[in-house]
Amino acid sequence: MRHMVSQQPADVGHQADTFADWDPELAPTAPGRTRRPEGDCPVEVALAAVSGRWTTLILRELMGGPRGFTELRERLPEVSAKVLSHRLRELGEGGLVSVERQRGFPVRSRYALTASGQALRPLLVELYATGEALLALGGGPGPDAGARGAAG
Fold it and tell me: Model-level pTM?
């Protein structure tokens, strides 16, 4: 059997050979032009920042300003204290949330978004809009289908 010559024009590259065919809006820089998930890929960094059940809701609540632990529990009554503590600790370790310990007994903590945490606002807004569009089109799993909470 004889090998057929490609039907594509000579100036069309292959993804394996060149980055010339990358969509410049989806992958404008080299770190986004990866063939597998990489830690320095901007999309992976953004997704990791909002991953985890309840994370988007906690971020949404902190977008309104600093909040105490009890206030967060009141605003998100379905989240357990253990999960809330764990998520806040993870967000703190990720540099997205700062904690201020207030004097007194009992010691009270106030949580606030850092500049990095505030930078997630457009992402949460866009995720919400995209979710609404998917729901309107009849696509996308509902919130119970996955382990990630929604920002809305």
Answer: 0.74
